[in-house]
């Protein structure tokens, strides 16, 4: 079993740029995809992931120092440090039951496909870490009950696949990605909440008339409404709030403008590789299992390439810091991944509002409040998991957590229910 765990950890450690081409190539060989299509799809997908990561990571590197200064300037203090999503992911893959959870989820996916309970073929190996995380936090909540931990991970997967099916038309219509969906638990778990909030905004007079999607803004304001110009303004605003000098403000403005333009371009490169592969697999599966209309489940990180999601995410950076300061019950200082997480959380709010940036900010603010409180609540368990995974607490630090942990709403709810159940059984 340890060999399997080590192998999974090695593949996961390669990152999506290398991992996804390997997975695509192996799956393609199994399903006998034409070798010409397979090789090109694998390479282009890896290149696309590299491009998206390069742009987003570069943007985060540019904006992170300004965010740190905003924290200092505003005197924001919290007792729990955000150690970043890579630390959470690394600890998750190091969880002793990780390999077992992976095989259980693969089995569940195959069974649901055969019985026509889902159309989602989960090919995004990396995102299995979210089901493992649910199992891991349940394991600690239930005093290391292995059965309940594995059951929790399985339930998380089943709900995620069903939510991915439900949101497939939205992915195809709004994000423009035919034949794929996003069974990423810490993203699609927020889709019902984003849907409900969008319906709520429909009921509020005045607010329901505001439509600030990029197309409308550009139509009304011309060049000023283009993504590159909005990025310039948003980036400079972050610099001003951080009290940076004029040169840094201009650099932040241009970096944000570049991100707004280049990220969607990189996503198109990725989709150029992924879609022919997905279509080939779909054709083969649909011939063997007619009437199923399978879709390929991929990483929801691709949603951050949407212009409205980027815009909302950038606006949410200072809003998130303000929330961290004033929100009762929050103890997390969300600095490590604040820019990336803000865009990640904005995906479903902007999708359900058809790109309405105003509604996207409203809904993402509500979701961010939940994320901060969940992350704070999970801190003791997150700390146990991190230590078990090899993380060493710095001197003077008792607890660690991540904003990313707070995005796992399905895992949080399931672990709470199983925690109560474990107490009764115990």
Describe the protein's architecture and organization:
72% of the residues lie in helices and 4% in strands. The protein has 426 residues and is mainly alpha-helical. Helix 6 packs across helix 16 (379-388).
Q: What tags apply to this protein structure?
A:
single chain; 426 residues; mainly alpha; three-stranded parallel β-sheet; 18 helices
* Broad shape: globular
Biggest pleated sheet:
3 strands, parallel
Give the low-confidence spans.
none
Measured between the Cα atoms of the first and last residue, the distance is 28 Å
Could you tell me the mean pLDDT?
A: 83
**Helix percent band:** over 70%
Q: Radius of gyration in whole Å, from Cα?
A: 21 Å
How are the elements arranged and paired?
Blueprint: H1 2-13, H2 16-30, H3 35-74, E1 80-82, H4 85-93, H5 98-114, E2 120-122, H6 128-141, H7 146-173, E3 180-181, H8 185-188, H9 191-203, H10 214-221, H11 227-241, H12 246-288, E4 295-297, H13 307-326, E5 332-333, H14 338-352, H15 357-377, H16 379-388, E6 400-401, H17 403-406, H18 409-425
Parallel strand pairs: 1-5, 1-6, 2-4, 3-4
Helix pairs in contact: 2-3, 3-11, 3-12, 4-16, 5-6, 5-7, 6-7, 6-16, 6-18, 7-18, 9-15, 11-12, 11-13, 12-13, 13-14, 13-15, 14-15
């Amino acid at each position: 079993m340890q060999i399997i765990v080590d192998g999974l950890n090695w593949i996961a450690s390669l990152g999506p740029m290398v991992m996804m081409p390997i997975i695509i190539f192996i799956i393609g060989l199994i399903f006998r995809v034409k070798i010409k299509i397979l090789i090109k799809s694998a390479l282009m997908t890896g290149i696309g992931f590299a491009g998206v990561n390069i742009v987003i990571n570069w943007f985060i590197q540019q904006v992170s120092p300004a965010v740190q200064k905003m924290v200092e300037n505003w005197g924001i203090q919290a007792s729990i440090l955000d150690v970043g999503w890579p630390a959470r992911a690394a600890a998750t893959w190091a969880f002793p039951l990780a390999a077992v959870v992976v095989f259980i989820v693969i089995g569940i996916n195959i069974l649901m496909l055969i019985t026509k309970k889902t159309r989602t073929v989960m090919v995004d190996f990396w995102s299995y870490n979210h089901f493992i995380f649910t199992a891991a936090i349940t394991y600690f909540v239930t005093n290391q009950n292995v059965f309940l931990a594995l059951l929790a991970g399985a339930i998380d997967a089943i709900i995620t696949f069903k939510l991915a099916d439900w949101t497939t038309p939205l992915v195809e219509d709004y994000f423009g990605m035919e034949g794929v969906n996003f069974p990423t638990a810490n993203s699609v778990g927020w889709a019902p909440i984003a849907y409900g909030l969008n319906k709520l905004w429909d009921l509020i007079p005045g607010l329901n008339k505001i439509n600030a999607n990029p197309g409308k803004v550009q139509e009304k304001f011309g060049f000023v409404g283009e993504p590159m110009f909005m990025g310039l303004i948003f980036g400079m605003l972050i610099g001003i709030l951080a009290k940076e000098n004029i040169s840094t403000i201009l650099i932040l403005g241009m970096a944000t403008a570049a991100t707004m333009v280049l990220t969607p371009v990189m996503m198109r490169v990725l989709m150029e590789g992924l879609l022919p592969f997905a279509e080939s697999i779909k054709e083969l599966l649909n011939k063997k299992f007619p009437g199923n209309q399978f879709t390929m489940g991929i990483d929801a990180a691709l949603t951050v390439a949407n212009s409205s999601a980027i815009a909302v995410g950038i606006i949410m950076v200072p809003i998130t810091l303000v929330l961290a300061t004033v929100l009762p019950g929050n103890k997390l200082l969300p600095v490590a991944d604040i820019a990336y997480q803000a865009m990640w959380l904005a995906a479903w709010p902007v999708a359900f509002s058809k790109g309405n940036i105003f509604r996207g900010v409203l809904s993402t603010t509500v979701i961010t409040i939940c994320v901060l409180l969940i992350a704070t609540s999970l801190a003791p368990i997150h700390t146990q998991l991190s230590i078990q995974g090899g993380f060493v607490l710095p001197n003077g630090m008792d607890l660690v957590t991540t904003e990313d942990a707070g995005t796992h709403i399905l895992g949080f709810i399931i672990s709470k229910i199983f925690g109560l159940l474990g107490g009764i059984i115990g």
